[in-house]
Each structure stands twice: as structure tokens, then as C-alpha cells.
Amino acid sequence: MAKPIKHLQTLVRQIEEPLPGVKRLVLADEDDWRLPAFKPGAHIDLHLGNGLVRTYSLCNDPSDCRRYVVAVKREEVGRGGSRHIHDVLRVGDSIGVSVPRGGLELLPQSMNVFIAGGIGVTPFISAILALEREGKANYILHWASAGEPSLIDMLGPALKAGRAHLYNTHTGNPPDIRAILQACGEDTKAFCCGPGRMLDAFEAAVAGWPEHRKHVERFVAPKIIPMSTDQPYEVVLAKSGRESVVLPEVGLLATLEAMGADVSVSCGGGICGACRTRWLEGPPIHRDRVLSPEEREHEVIVCVAGCSGRRLVLDL
Ligand code: FES
Question: How many structural domains are present in the chain?
């Protein structure tokens, strides 16, 4: 059975602007009930109205389930989600959020190295708050920002303990990612979240590392280019019996939307997991950065997937 798409209604309790261009939202149940639990660095989708769905990392301590805190940088040339949050959303507004998903698999005993660029620090703030609360010192943060860092007030203990290194790229050099990672022990796990150039440098530096020792967190979806070898295929929605043909130039997601399928979409680029769906017949061509090999045996990220057979049957 397809996972039900669960949303809950929250109220915007607080909006702060810790630095111009960055808004920090505190969302809570309207009666202050506990919200679903989350792991450090988990994401939620914000349902902003008019079908606008955007995914953000939670940046509060996971032990505090009475609120969800997200930080949003205004992107002038983005797709409109951050501008809506900055310009339209007000304290007291009701906002739909998904249940949290994903999160960072931290090493409980060995070293966790976080490398962040700008607002990409948010998933690591949540992880650091959790580690600090547990009295653990097995992490180090390297955080680059173009100018003053925006959420510095959330990292007091880490800064005081010398476990957070800041790099202002307006006045100095960015972190030397290769050198940082070369100095790591064999049992270290490295995490990176930031702009594309930083992620590329990180991926090059950890190319020879085993998968379980590295984690890349993307918030900008890579462009998916249809392959010239892609063939049309039939998509079938098992629950409603609806069928349609997916043309390579149209793609699966647009076809599903035209069929009125109930699929939640946020990034549209295979990085957030909002559109994961069970498949029954295929096989699909997986192009996401979300699912593990085991999950791919039953699920597919439909915003970027294709099909290598003649028929893709989805549990929708
Ligand atoms: S909408 Fe984000 S992975 Fe499909």
C-alpha cells in the first residue's frame, strides 16, 4: 500500500530575522500538543497554499517536539517559496506541514565532521544541539558564510567549546575541505551541506570513502536531462485503474499531474523525498538521491524516475 501523505496543521508562533534575508520560523500545534518526533537534520515540507510546497531542514533540538524551527533564506531567483515565506507569511497564520522525514545518521562514538556553507548549516545545528544535550563532544563544524553567519545564536555551546570553526569568505579563505578530510581518522563520518561548488569539492575529496562514512545534503536539485534513449511507456494507477502514456519529453511527473494523481511534490528534482511512491510493476529507472537500494525495490521517486519496461504500475 502507498504510504498515506500525512499533513498536519500548525500555527506560525514566531518569525525572527536573525540576519537580513534570513527568516527563522517557529511552528507549533495550535493547542501546543506534541508534534511528531524527528531525527537530527530531518526535513519537513511546508504547504504554503496554491500548491506551493517547499522542503526545509528542521534546525531545533529533536528533543523539543512542541515546535518545529526552520530557517529560510530569501532567494530572489528561486521558485517563489522563500519569497512567499518572507513577504506573505505572518505570525498567527495556519500552515500545513508534512510529518518529518529523513535525518542524519550520526556516529554515536566516533567523530562526526560537518562542513556547511551558508544556510546549509541548518541540519547540522539540529544535530549539534542534540549532541551537546547528550554531553557528547564527538563532532566538529566547519561553516563558511559570505559575510556574517546567520544563525550563530543557535550555536553558543559549540562555539564556546571550540567545536565550531567559522570562515567569512568576504574577509578570508573558505575551509580547505580536502585538508580537513585528509586529517580525519578512519572511523570519522563526514557530512556536507552547502552550495554546489562546496558539495563538488566535498564529493571529490571523499570519492574513495565508503558510503557509510559520507553524507551529502542537497537543497538545490540537480538538473535532470532526459536521455535520448528514453522510450514512451504506459503508466497505470493501480487503485483508480487510470492509465496514460508517458512521453519522454513530458516525463512521469507531468503525466501523473495531468492524470490528477495524488502525489506530493516539493523539490521536483529527486532530493527531498516528498513524492516517494510504491511501485508494483516496472522496473522503474531511479534517478533520485533519496532512496537506498533496498527501498528502490519497492519505491520510486516519481519526479525524476523513468521506466525501462513498457509499463509502470504505481500503487496510487
Ligand atoms: S518532489 Fe522532491 S524528491 Fe520528488
Answer: 3
